[in-house]
Amino acid sequence: MELGLVGLGKMGGNMRERIRRAGHTVVGYDRNPQLADAASLEEMVAKLPTPRVVWVMVPAGAPTEQTVGQLGELLSEGDVVVDGGNSKWTDDKKHAETLAKKGIGFVDAGVSGGVWGLQNGYALMVGGDAADVAKVQPVFDALKPEGDSGFVHAGKVGAGHFAKMVHNGIEYAMMQAFAEGWELLETSDVVENVTDTFASWEQGTVIRSWLLDLAVKALKEDPGLEDLRGYAEDSGEGRWTVEAAVDLAVPLPAITASLFARFASRQEDSPAMKMVAALRNQFGGHAVEASNGKSAAPDPTQHQKG
């Protein structure tokens, strides 16, 4: 099979290599000419036999909007566009409807695997019409891990990105649980070897997982994680998961708390906790700490004056 692949960064570049190793031809385009097989989208499309399949692997939002729009002008009836980026699932229906006006199919693909995908394969969650998915199936088979799992046609257009969104929400909560457990072990004076304790969980326990393996790897490389700052960004999918839960009235306390924990990690000083400190001082006369780090305990009756 021959595939056009737009976006050859960390994920896209490794995906191109894995697909080629499976015996397929990939014509890649990237804004970085050193990575590209074609000088433009037009050249990439021209090199593909019909019906053409083009996989888009660029950042969500405007870059994806622009790329899908351009492909809509370049492709023809019977061709298929696959969005394998982290697009919001609500955008998929819009893209599918726009492309359908020209008879172009659309498949949304949630892709998980990160930098390890080239070696281990990518978990794929896809949405779209069965006929469009079938046109891309040889590529899905090349990308997925060996074995029976790792690929699912989750449902109609949008289902792939929705499933990937929920996957990432679960990932947030699992990461937060490992992080909190690690901090508790480190703070306690009972457990003297935290790294080996984590490593002992890798076999035979109900929490064994790839995330646990990666946690152990990180701790062995940097015991105590002294080289890192406790700052964590979010990709957006955690937020979308919580938004969907609100829309559908589904309680997600663990996932929601893990998202808010990431927000808290970005604060040098918590504005909310300043208010808590002020209120404790006002109603109870509790000591507070001034912004210069010194202890400050104003007259607890001061608020009654004036």
Automatic annotation (TrEMBL):
This is 6-phosphogluconate dehydrogenase (Decarboxylating). Pfam families: 6PGD, NAD_binding_2. One of its GO terms (biological process) is D-gluconate metabolic process. The keyword Transmembrane does not apply. Belongs to the 6-phosphogluconate dehydrogenase family. Residues 160-287 form the 6-phosphogluconate dehydrogenase C-terminal domain. It comes from the Bacteria. Keywords: Gluconate utilization, Oxidoreductase. One of its GO terms (molecular function) is NADP binding.
